[in-house]
Design a protein that fits this description.
Layout (H helix, E strand, L loop, with lengths): L10 E5 L4 H12 L3 E6 L4 H8 L3 E4 L14 E4 L2 H5 L1 H8 L5 E3 H9 L3 E6 L4 H14 L5 E8 L4 E4 L5 E5 L14 E4 L13 H12 L7 E4 L7 H4 L5 E4 L15 H16 L4 H9 L9 E5 L5 E5 L4 H14 L4 E6 L4 H6 L1 H5 L7 E4 L15 H11 L4 E4 L3 H11 L4 E6 L5 H7 L8
Parallel strand pairs: 1-2, 1-4, 2-3, 4-5, 6-9, 6-10, 7-9, 10-11, 11-12, 14-18, 15-16, 15-18, 16-17
Antiparallel strand pairs: 7-8, 13-14
Pathway: Cell wall biogenesis; peptidoglycan biosynthesis
Keywords: ATP-binding, Cell cycle, Cell division, Cell shape, Cell wall biogenesis/degradation, Cytoplasm, Ligase, Membrane, Nucleotide-binding, Peptidoglycan synthesis, Transmembrane, Transmembrane helix
Organism: Candidatus Taylorbacteria bacterium RIFCSPLOWO2_12_FULL_44_15c
């Protein structure tokens, strides 16, 4: 059965409902009055909120066909299930009940919307939050789907009533090639997700195809000074805006870093394309509180060290996060606590990762967060540590295997003159929470 419209389905079951993107679509369909059920492997605050607003969610160690409710007339799934439970996935696809991926569902949602898509290998989430904040403050009443928690609404989803959809689009598995945006931000393009893409040229090919999906009367906003981006947008038919031309003299963001100022330029370019008053857009960004795990201030340790947390997990993001921290705290000792994300990413980006810690005074490494991957004996945090040591012989470097031992070390080592920044896309944020006395780790 071809699924071409979500409106005709009433009982929708989500597999991997706790994912940041999948849960947003579940919230959207709940807001439209649909009956929503779902499953995932672990509880989280996102799932708690889904239950609170009416979703029926089960936590399952192993997915079984029999766990799908009998009255389900559509299944929406996270593509992670293809790797995590391939036999279940094949059986699910053989069911009479139609099933579509998160990206396919998003395509149907965006089909009748004025879609503003934010893409790029880094900076997507913060830029999406900025665009959303500007549009909400300008009374555009947008629907928003973002890959984190937008602090202004304490959610990864905003149920708007207008035609506008602001959505963060991931390049992984070319998921963004399911939608046709009217406005597209391409923040940047660098090597990432090399467990899927062959190389930088393959990534650029995906972005070239995405840019080609913007109509002639649409707008592409990008960085004309980025050498990896220019070839991608050159052949696109849309109107082009170089966000480097956007003035930011009156911009006073609450968080540091040139990368965030560039994110703001892109968001302000969207405001200009939509006819929003420029000074009001600037004021909106000046009061923007940010998103979860993007240079997020967590608090202080008992000995007075400041604790921040950031989702950075590739070389450019790590460098930007540390440069921002150094800009904010030029005289403090900066302790970077990094959890490498994925064996494949650590192996393929070993050299650039090892060159990413110039602004840190001390680097503490935890073991690699495997996520969707099986362990790879050819790569480890210890190997990364040796590479970092080659580049930064003057820095204090540590590899500590257990989170509790990292926390103990930082509580002993860190003091009032220090800033501790936990970095990574896995569960390294738990250390930041432990350091400041937060014990609820179920984000």
């Amino acid at each position: 059965m071809i699924v071409d419209n979500l409106n005709k389905f009433e009982n929708i079951h989500f597999i991997g409902i706790g994912g940041i993107g999948v849960s947003a679509i579940a919230r959207l369909l709940l807001a439209e009055g649909k009956a929503v059920s779902g499953s995932d492997v672990a509880d989280s605050k996102l799932i708690d909120e889904l239950r609170r607003i009416g979703a029926k969610v089960r936590i399952l160690n192993k997915q079984k066909i029999g766990d799908i409710p009998k009255n389900t007339d559509l299944i929406i799934y996270s593509t992670a299930i293809e790797v995590a439970a391939p036999k279940f996935f094949k059986a699910m696809k053989r069911l009479a009940t139609p099933s579509i991926s998160y990206a396919e569902a998003l395509s149907l949602i965006s089909a009748d919307k004025f879609t503003i898509a934010i893409s790029g290998t880094h900076g997507k989430t913060t830029t999406t939050g900025m665009v959303a904040k500007i549009l909400m403050d300008a009374d555009f009443d947008p629907t928003v789907i973002i890959g984190s928690i937008l602090k202004e609404v304490n959610s990864n989803f905003v149920a708007g009533k207008s035609k506008y959809l602001v959505v963060e689009m991931d390049e992984y598995q070319r998921k963004f090639l399911t939608i046709f945006p009217k406005i597209l931000i391409v923040n940047n393009i660098d090597e990432d997700h090399l467990d899927y893409f062959k190389n930088l040229a393959d990534i650029q090919d995906a972005f070239t195809k995405f840019a080609a999906r913007v109509p002639k009367d649409g707008v592409i906003i990008t960085d004309f000074e980025h050498p990896n981006v220019v070839p991608v947008v050159r052949a696109a038919r849309a109107i082009m805006i170089d966000y480097n031309s956007v003035p930011i003299d009156n911009l006073r963001l609450k968080f540091p870093g040139e990368h965030n100022r560039q994110n703001a330029r892109a968001a302000l370019a969207v405001a200009g394309a939509l006819g929003i008053n420029f000074q009001k857009a600037i004021l909106s960004l000046n009061s923007f509180s940010g998103t979860w795990r993007r240079f997020e201030h967590k608090g202080k340790t008992q000995k007075g060290a400041l604790v921040y947390d950031d989702y950075a997990h590739n070389p450019q993001k790590i460098q930007a996060a540390l440069a921002g921290a150094r800009e904010f705290f030029p005289k403090k000792r900066l302790i970077a606590v990094f959890q490498p994300h994925l064996y494949s990413r650590t192996r393929t980006l070993l050299k650039p990762l090892s060159n990413s810690f110039a602004d840190a005074d001390m680097v503490v490494l935890s073991p690699i967060f495997s996520a969707r991957e099986a362990p790879d004996p050819k790569i480890s945090s210890e190997i990364l540590l040796k590479e970092i040591l080659k580049n930064y012989k003057d820095k204090i470097l540590r590899h500590i295997a257990k989170f509790e031992d990292i926390t103990d070390f930082l509580n002993t080592e860190g003091g009032a003159g220090d800033v501790i920044l936990t970095i990574g896309a896995g569960d390294i944020y738990k250390i930041a929470e432990d350091l400041v006395g937060e014990k609820n780790h179920d984000k």
